[in-house]
Model the fold of this input.
Amino acid sequence: MRTRRIAFLGIACLASALLAGCALVRGPADRVDEFVAAGAACTGSWWIGDPREGTSDEARVIAEAALAEAEVSPVALASTVSLLNDSKNDYERANTSAQALEREAYLLTVTLHVKDQLDTAGYPDIDRVVEVWSDSACS
Done:
């Protein structure tokens, strides 16, 4: 029993260090939102980054503006929840909590807005000139 507690504590510390390390490597988030997912208070964070050297300054400016202006309306969120549900198999649907689904949908709604704006400006996602990373936590 004591060994399990020590192992669990070690895993928890390692996971916390990895998450903190990711934030340190990326720096402060470009956007942070407080939102509710299935009744839980959550915080979402997004970072805009360059997947490779030579990323167009114009693409980065477009991505940053799109990230700042992205709104998560109830209609957009419902659409993304539906998209996520459609992309999951039966096992994944059965094992994904409502909170996890809504949290993922919120993050993805913002990310998709950025990618749509880049696509409209001539930077399709298939070229991946700008990357959008996100992370979230709920209490």
Observations:
- Residues 24 and 120 are 32 Å apart (CA to CA).
- The longest helix spans residues 2-26.
- The radius of gyration is 17 Å.
